Structures are given as C-alpha cells and as structure tokens.
Amino acid sequence: MLCVKGGSIYDPLNGKAGAVGDIYVSDGKIVPPAPGARVIDATGLVVMPGGVDIHSHIAGPKVNVGRVICPEHSRSEPVARTSVTRSGVGSVIPSTFVTGYRYARMGYTYVTEAAAPPLEARHVHEELSDIPIVDKGALILMGNNHFVLSLIREGDFERLKDYAAFLIKASGGYGIKAVNPGGGANWRKRGNVGSLDDETREYRVTPREIIDALIEVNEALGLPHALHLHCNNLGQPTSGETALETMALAKGRRLHITHMQFSAYKPTKGRPFASSAKALAEYVNRNPNITMDVGQVVFGPAVTMTADAPLQYSLHTLTKERWVNKEIEMETQSGIVPLTYRKRTYVGAIQWIAGLELFLMIENPWQISLTTDHPNGGPFTAYPWVIRLLMDRSYREEVAETVNKRALGSSELPKLTREYTLEEIAIITRAGPARTLGLANKGHLGIGADADIAIYRPNSDFEVMFQAAAYVLKGGEVVVREGEVVSETFGKTYIPALPERRDVTPWLSPVFSKFYSVAFENYAVEKEKYMPCEVV
Amino acid sequence: MKTFENIVCSFCGSLCDDIVLEVEDNAISKVRGGCAISRRRFLGPIDREVPRIDGQEAGFDEALDIAVEILAKARHPLIYGLSSTSSEAQAAAVKLGETLGASVDSTSSVCHGPGTVAKQLVGLPTCTLGEVKNRADVVVFWGCNPVEAHPRHFSRYSVQAKGLHIEEGRRNRKVIVADVRRTATARTADIFLQVAPNEDFQVLTALRAVIGGAELEGEAFGGISRDEIRTTCNILQNAEYGGFFFGMGLTMTQGTHYNVRQALSLVRDLNEKTAFAVIPMRGHGNVAGAETVLAWQTGYPFGINFSRGYPRYNPGEFTVTDLLSRREVDAALIVASDPGATLPARAASFLSEIPTIVIDPNYSATAKLARVFLPSAPVGVAASGTGYRMDQVPLPLRKVIDSKYPSDHDILLAIDKGVTECSASKEVLSMIL
Questions:
Q1: Taking CA atoms, what residue in A is nearest to B19?
Q2: Cβ distance of B130 and A517 shorter than 8 Å
Q3: What is the mean pLDDT of chain A?
Q4: pLDDT value at position A458?
Q5: Phi and psi dihedrals of A526, rounded to 5?
Q6: Which fold has domain B47-111+285-379+405-432?
Q7: Least enclosed by CB within 10 Å: which of A74, A441, A527, B48?
Q8: Beta partners for A536?
Q9: Which residues in chain A show pLDDT less than 50?
Q10: Cβ separation of B308 and A80 shorter than 8 Å?
Q11: What is the crossing angle of helices A207-220 and A146-154, to 10°?
C-alpha cells in the first residue's frame, strides 16, 4: 500500500480544489485510509488524477506513414535508450515507445487513438501495444462506411445497430467516430459534400442523415462516449456555420464535436476566414448535451492527418507539400500533409486565436477538453504550453503581441481576461475528458478509482510545472519521478460493454467476400492483440 | 486429418487469405486455392535442417550460445533481412538491434527502399487492393510481373477481379503494362509500353508533361513514340479510378528513387483530373511489415543504426549493400532472407569474411557461408504472427503444424536475453576491475 501524503489535491469530480489531504493506493486502486502504507511525501505538491486525452493520433496506419514521410522531424529529436526505457524519436510524431514516455512524464495516463479504420485495426492495436504506460482506447471510423451509408439509405436502423456493434467488437474499438460524413464517400470520385444536405453520389444520403443515424445508433447501443464527430466543411470559411447546424441536429442528444477550433471559421472580406469561436462557444454554453475538444494550434511544425481526405487534398494544392492519400476499401479514406503553423501569417494566427477563444469563452469546463488534435494542430507535448496560455493572462498577451496583427485585431482575444484555475485545468485535462469518454474509474481520485495519479511541483511558469511531473503513478505504481520515466509498464485497452445484438454474419458474410479483399473470417482483430483489456 | 480454412499465404506480398490447408500427422497434405508458389511452399518439408556451427551439425542451444557470443563481442553488428517473418519477430529484431547498438536494415533497401525515399519526397496517393478490385477501370503495371511473381494478383485484386463497381472484371478494365521486355504480364495488356532499358524516367516524364498539358517535342521518349504517350495519357486521365502498380523494374533500375518519384508524381498529377492510386508491388510476404514495424518503433522505415543508443536513419550509409561492401560491420545476423544469393557479389562475399549468423527455416545460400545457422519454424506454417500485405493491410499468419524449432521471434528474444546477460556480466566485471 502507498500513501500520497500531504499534497494539495485537485479532484474536481469529488469537489476537491486544493485541499491538503492524503490519497491511499492499493492493488492499483484508490482505497480508504489504512495503516502501514509506504509514503510518498507530496507536501507542497499538487496532486491530480492522471491526465486523460480524448483525441490524439498516436497509432495506426496514417500515423505511421506520417512518421515515414517526415524523417526530418524525427532527426531533430533523437531519444536514447536508458536502463528502463527504449530508444526512439520525439519531435512531431514520436515513435511508439517515446509516445508513452512523453505522455507519462506530463502526467497523462489514458489516451484515445482518434481514428481507426476497421480493416487496419489490427495495425492500430499492434502499435498501441507498443505504447508504454498509458491506457488506451480507439475510436472506429464509420462516417463513410459502405454498409453504414447503404443501411441508412435503406432505412434499416436495426441492422445498422447490429453492424455498428459488430464493427466496434471486430475492431477492438471503444466508440464511434465520423469524419466529414458523406464527404469521404464522394472523395472516391474526388468530390466532397458542401453542406449537411448535399447528397452523396453513390448512396443518395446526406451528411445530416448520416450524423443523425450515427447519434441514434450510438445512444441505442448505450456506448460510454457520445458520437465523436469531425464536422463537414472543416477548415473552410463555412465551417463555423456547418458546426452550428450540426450541433443543432443533435436535438438534445449527446454529441462530441472534436477539434472544434478547426471548425470555428467564418467568411470575412479580403481574407481566407475569420474566427467564429464566439458563436460556437455561445451555442455550447446554451446546450449541455454538447461536449467538445479544442484542437489548439501550436506554432511550429505539425503533420496534418485525417480521414477528411478531400480537406487534405485542398491543403496539398495550397501548400504543394507532400501528399499522402489512402482509400481503404468499403470503409474510409485518409490524407496526410505536413504543415507548419506560423504566428506571423494571418491564417496561422487566426487558428491559434480561435482555439484560445473557445477555451476562454466556453464557460463550463466540463464541456471542453484540451487537445491539439495531435499531430494535426501540433504535438501533444505542447499541452503544458497551452496550459500556461490559459492560466497566465500576461503571458498570453505577451505571445498575442507577437502574432499577426491583423488577425489579432479582428478577434475577441484581447478582450478575454479569463485565467484558468488549477481546478479548471484539472477538469479540461482529466476529470472532464474522463467523464465525456464515460470512464468512471478515471479522471478522479475517489475510492475505487484507478490509482492513476499525477503529482506536480508548483511553479509560476505553468509550462514548466506541467511538462515534467514530480511523480506519476500508473495503476498504483510509480512510473515517473522528477520527469523521468523510472519504470516501464504497459496499460490496458478499453472497450465498451456492448448490448446483445443480432449476428451480422448471415447477411454480411456473403457480400463481404465480394467487395473486400480479405476473408470475412480474417477481418476481426484477435482479442489477444489488445489484451489486457478492460470493459466499461 | 484437420482442415484449416482462410489461411493466409505469406509467400509473396499479395497475402492471399483464402487458402485451405489439410493437415495430417503434423504435415500439410493438401493445399486448396493457392497458386503454384503457394502449393510448393506449403507442401515443402519443414524441420529438414539442423543447427550448424561452421557448417557442422550442432545442438540448437550450443549454436545459440555461439550466436550470442558473436553478437555480444561485435563492435558494429548488422541485423538484416526480416522480410519473410512476422511483425512480432521484426519488433524483436529492433529490440536486439537496440541492445547491440547495431545497424538494422530490411530487404527494402534492395527492393522497394527507393520507393520509400520517393514517398518521403512527394508523398503517396494510394489505396488498399480491394479498392482496385471494386473501382479501378484502368490498371497500370510498371516494371513488375505479377503473372509470374504474384500469380493470383490479377484474379483477386486487379485485372480480372470483380467488385462493387467493376462487375465484369477484365472486360471493364484497360490494362497498361510498361516493361523493358514482353513479360507474361505484358502479354495480357491492352497497351504495352516497351521501355528502353534504364529509360523509365524519360517515359514517365513525357507522360507527366502531357498530363500537365504540354506539347511534346520529339518523336520518342525512352523508346515510346509520341503517339503511344498520348494514347496512354488519354486512357489514364479518362479513368474512373486508376490503379498503378510498380515493381523493381522501376525501383532498382537506373534512376532508382528518381524513377519512383516521377511515377508517384504522375499519379498525384492524375488526381487533378480523376481518382488514381499507386501501390508498390512488394515481393516478400511481410516486407511491408518490416517498414511498418521499424517506423513505429524507431521513426524510420529501414537503414537504421543504433550505435549512439538512439536510432539514426541514412539510406546509403546504414543500408546493407553499403555496410557490407564498405566492410563496415564486424558481424551479421541475417533473419528470414537470403542476401548471399541476392546482394552484389562484393557485399555478399563479405558475409563469409565476418562471423555471420542466419536464422531461417531453410538452409539458404547465406546459411551455407554463415558461421552459425539456426533453423526456425516457418511463419504462417509452424509459427503465428501478423503479416502486412503490399497495401499495408495487416493479416493474421497462422500456425497449422508444429515445428521442433522455435519461431524467429522466440530465437531473437533469446539472443537478446543472452546478449543482455552477457553485457550485464561484462559491466559487473568492469566494475570489479
């Protein structure tokens, strides 16, 4: 048994905002106080639940191709092995081992892989298994899947629920992800959709119908997390309007809008776009059914990678950078384009500003999670910098002074004086995302919770404070000490408890072999590929 | 007798996964659904070989100990091959490479490595094979000969395959083949471009120019007439969905990655007009996996060196042919490949001058010149794991019979353990001294 003694505890779910106290740990869980525990002296330190990342691209085919095509990033940051850790590379897309170490050193203990194609889910799990320390879950792409769109077209929602449950199970997934629904289907003929009511060419269904159906399916299956949606028209001047319409179609049902910053633009005269964060924030403030994560842009190199293939092609035509595109039969597509965000450019500055405006204008921190849409908006290792921007107004203003003047002048940011408190940071980086993901044992330090604990040394520079935890406990074991990984453990894969649904084999198997290039029997990922797993 | 269905055949990069195997008395007695390569390989004997030290029969553990000793002593060992084994074994090889401070390279560096370098320059518009089957009405084969090297590629994925929007298979497709000789694949083509040897770059450049709207000056380009170039471009840009496969005829001929860069750029340019995808026609069963596993563990796809405790990547420096022909390594561990038979003579012969260890189910040409030979259980037959198809789709390779030898994966882990213990004792010794 361990006792984390005398720290200032920030455990928002249990109403603790800095109260000094002790946390007892045994068998990987938080337990009631008992005598005889080994003590970790946390006097003067800040104690929080382990961080929970709701959206990050850390494993799988497109992440890895991003690594392959950008050796220039990897070369800038080699990571040597130590007596306990493996070697690798850091920088924009760290190698798998380094991904785990870097999350852990920031005090993060759970990460969601944001986009897994079922046909290549085995690959996603092989990489996830090589990410040490953190627990993980994978969201399964369904928004442009042939069978999903066909069943919506046919109006067969019962079969759609069967199929969605099958896909989650076969992929070892945690939840449902949709990316530019309908747009990907049209990308097969190098088209896209321009609004929620644009029909897809081959399936004659609209994004509105797909999103509505997937929300319905998600709720009917009782999944722990809401539908995780990358909106249509993302990155376009029309994105803000589309995001508002999309949120409205949830009609009170749970919906998670991911990396909202990339959907927070509106048209403006003479410039590519302006920030529409205010309108989106106001909508979120009025509608508690909506949760979102930000996708904050970080200045410097990034690699954009998304199932929104048409978006990536337009980015490529704009920048002439390397372009990777991949169609995955029957299911989805993706695009990869390296990109650098520059503070002096109007667009780079607007994107940075829009993210901060969302952070500062969305009132209820339980609705908002901190992400950079790693590595799209920048690497996850920039979270401590983002925290500093949120907590330290004078630092934020100092940085704002250095960005494109015209962008700053047109924005709300200079007027926003809010500073996040430590309690609010604890919400947007752990308690909130854990609740939004439906992870009952994560994101808090109540009795029975997982003993995933991050202990930080207070510092007036919050970036320094959060980039290297004094201690991190994962499952009750000390894995990080003074920002160094001292023990390499491997976490679990999280999967949802699925309701009993009808077997899809009788109708799916015959058509499957006609349209897929693999046998139906080889499609599902063997469970040992994602063991140990935890069902929630 | 036991029947195994939907078995993945890992004897070429197509990873056909519809093979039926019948097993009797721990031997595969019948192969249904496979091609000639598949039948020959599945039906081939296993466990025929014995462990060897200097060509002489030895005990497995004894041979393993010598292997550990060689590698622990080496100052700059090379781990090479990895293309015909599981991704799990590939990961174990990376771990060992890190422990040893070795150079780690896969057969990519002598087959599709230039394609990967080209990808690092321009990207890669690609798709999975099912997409070609479902949609491609134009299929291009450049410098590859699937009829002989990937015998079921046509019927399962590309030329004859029927799919979602290609209901009649071959009749719905135009097939273009570019090669320096009239191969078996070329004989099936609607258009055959007989490229002058080493002039692929010229032909691809002419095609790009026409697709880009330029008027060609000159009568012929790399052996292809202006009219043929124009006709080909018409077909390419009028495709509903195009699939472009390239092989070593492009990657390993004069120009190497410049050739592939031009091919990838051509396909990228075609995407301004229609949908087009390009897939490297990978040869070995899991050579795609080697690139994939190395990349997720180290950040880099091949040509890696760990001598500084972290991975460095430099094709031309840490790639097999260069390391061997410059005589820069002092030991070699060859896993699931046969460089003795495939590398240039100068590089291959150096393997017999340094202590070489071979892990392979077969007593290969390389094994014959090795100091230590460790036979292993063939993956996809007597060992399980994951294989990555040429389009990066991962498939389960299954064990259907038992081997008396461990898998590549287990042998590599055992060597890693041995070397780690060896160096731990060395450290203790140096502390005492």
A1: A519
A2: yes
A3: 98
A4: 98
A5: -60, 140
A6: Rossmann fold (3.40.50)
A7: B48
A8: none
A9: none
A10: yes
A11: 90
pLDDT score of A2? 97
Question: Does the pLDDT at position B433 exceed 60?
Answer: no
Shortest distance between the Cα of B50 and any Cα of chain A, in A, equals 32
**Helix orientation angle between A157-171 and A505-515, rounded to the nearest 10 degrees:** 70
Q: Which of A68, A87, A323 sits opposite B295 (nearest CB)?
A: A68
Contact A79 B268 (CB under 8 A): no
pLDDT value for B425: 63
Largest CA distance in chain A: 69
The Cα of B155 is separated from the nearest Cα of chain A by a number of Å equal to 11
Q: Considering Cα of A145, then A147, then A152, then A157, what sign does the dihedral take?
A: negative
> Testing the interface with A: which of B99, B124, B271, B296 to mutate, by most A Cβ within 10 A?
B296
Cis peptide before A510 (omega within 30 of 0): no
Residues of A in contact with B129 (CB under 8 A): 329, 517
Spatial CB neighbours of A492, under 8 Å, sequence gap ≥ 6: A135, A136, A532, A533, A534
Q: What are phi and psi of A275, to 5 degrees?
A: -80, 135
The 3-class SS string of chain B reads CEEEEEECCCCCCCCCCCEEEEEECCEEEEEECCCHHHHHHHHCCCCCCCCEECCEECCHHHHHHHHHHHHHHCCCEEEEECCCCCHHHHHHHHHHHHHHCCEEEEHHHHCCHHHHHHHHHHEEEEECHHHHHHHCCEEEEECCCHHHHCCCHHHHCCCCCCCCCCCCHHHHCEEEEEECCCCCCHHHCCEEEECCCCCHHHHHHHHHHHHCCCCCCCCEECCEEHHHHHHHHHHHHCCCEEEEEECHHHHCCCCCHHHHHHHHHHHHHHCCCCEEEEEECCCCCCHHHHHHHHHHHHCCCCCEECCCCCCEECCCCCCHHHHHHCCCCCEEEEECCCHHHHCCHHHHHHCCCCCEEEEECCCCHHHHCCCEEEECECECCCECEEEECCCCCEEEECCCCCCCCCEHHHHHHHHHHHHHHHHHHHHHHHHHC
Using the beta-carbon criterion (under 8 Å), do B274 and A518 form an inter-chain contact? no
Span A226-284, pLDDT tens digits = 999 999 999 999 999 999 999 999 999 999 999 999 999 999 999 999 999 999 999 99
Nearest-CA residue of chain A relative to B16?
A518
For tokens 């992400």, name the residue.
Answer: A371
Residue B423: per-residue pLDDT: 74
Alpha-helical runs (H) found in A192-308? 207-220, 239-249, 277-286
CB contacts of A69 in chain B (<8 Å) are 119-120, 123-124
The per-residue pLDDT for B432 is 56
Chain B: residue nearest A76 by CA?
B312
Q: Which of A321, A325, A518 sits opposite B395 (nearest CB)?
A: A518
- Give the pLDDT mean for B273-296: 97
Sign of CA dihedral A367, A373, A374, A378: negative
The verdict on a CB contact (< 8 Å) between B120 and A130 is no
Given this model, what pLDDT does residue B431 score? 57
| Chain centre to alpha carbon of residue B67 | 25
Confidence (pLDDT) at B430: 57
**pLDDT score for A269:** 95
Rounded to the nearest 10 degrees, the angle between the axes of helix A121-129 and helix A157-171 is 40
- Per-residue model confidence as pLDDT tens digits over B85-102: 999 999 999 999 999 999
**Rounded Cα gap, residues B252 and B255, in angstroms:** 8
Question: What is the reported pTM?
Answer: 0.97
Whether the CB-CB separation of A335 and A308 falls below 8 Å is answered with yes
How much is the average pLDDT of B22-32? 97
Q: Give me the CATH topology for the region B113-280.
A: Dimethylsulfoxide Reductase; domain 2 (3.40.228)
Domains of chain B, residue spans: 47-111+285-379+405-432, 113-280
